Amino acid sequence: MTDLSVANTANQPALDVEAIRRDFPILSQQVNGKPLVYLDNGASAQKPVAVLDAMDRYYREMHSNVHRGAHTLGDRATSAFEGARETVRGFLNAASTREIIWTRGTTEAINLVANGLAPRLQSGDEILVTQMEHHANIVPWQMVAERTGAKVIPIPVTPAGELELDSFHSLLNERTKVLAVAHVSNVLGTVNPIAALINEAKKRGIITLVDGAQAVPHYQPDVQALDCDFYAFSSHKMFGPTGIGVLYGKSHLLEEMPPYQGGGEMIERVSFERTTWNTLPYKFEAGTPAIAEAVGLGAAIDYLGSLDRKAMEAAESALLIRANDLVESVPGMEIIGTATDKVPVISFKIAGLHPSDIGTLLDQQGIAIRTGHHCAMPLMDFYGVPGTARASFAFYNTLNEVEQLFTALQKIQRLFA
Predict the structure, then answer these.
(1) Is the pTM of this model over 0.70?
(2) CA 68, CA 230: separation in Å to the nearest integer?
(3) Which of 3.40.1350.10, 3.40.640.10, 3.40.50.300, 3.40.1010.10 would CATH assign to domain 52-305?
């Protein structure tokens, strides 16, 4: 078996994975009598003690509603809550915390933008998405298109799982109003060339939204360098708590957009004759927010910032390389998505085996993966499969775990051969 400290090459820094794993209590348990091998990070990543402690401390020492209480606990809670917003701003390199909107996750963030841009759309306008999008970056645009008469147009992908860039360029025209694209595919692991896509869109005045849910566990995006109009991500995929996410938006666009929900906090003045809206970012944050979850997300970002990012990327690259090397050891195994640039995700099928059976049999051996269509039915249709099995790795996974996965797959394949 391979050493726990992994790096891509001898010239790159090694990550002390064994020490890092001690930061994640859930990884030390057994499942079905076997040590847990958690390879479903693309669905939801595990939480370090730093996140658990931050949320526990909030509830034990400072819980109160924010922005409203004229007392010490209210001040503490507000300080922690807004401090987390500043942490997110720094993580994204946004120009101001006014551009950081708390949401329940990427899905709500995209819905917020789609509904906010609806007044700009009319019959015949086009919204470009990619064929590899998660349903969360397809369905909200379809709903808005149905109301406005606009059309949702997919950018094709190649069999390798990369965007057809010639098709992208040919689809751009005077009717294109929005480009909504995943930074990283949740199914294929493909890293899309979003900087180039955004640059082409900006030349034509097209509004751009990036679904960063699968990117932020692996990369730290710079929204000012990208010059995207909107960037959305979820906390739980980047080692933070569930129930909270972030929408970054350029302030001038957020100012122009109508509120997404009404209620407390998002108002300036309410009367039965007229209501006026609060300033950014509160205009889009109706009701009591997910305060503890915001604190937890801030702690997750701080935790990631305490690690050597280059070493993390090298470790994850080594995991992917090892997985690809072992594919031929499982007869009938085929990887879906072989892009040159991808994060450590492998979606696969094995001849004669249903993905759900693979997942169930792996679980019996303590190995957690994802199976199904992964909320990407159009992409499954493109590949002509009902679904795939997907193993998605994080920096706390080990080369030993990669090898355990393939040993288990070999056993399953022999059982059904």
Answers:
(1) yes
(2) 29
(3) 3.40.640.10
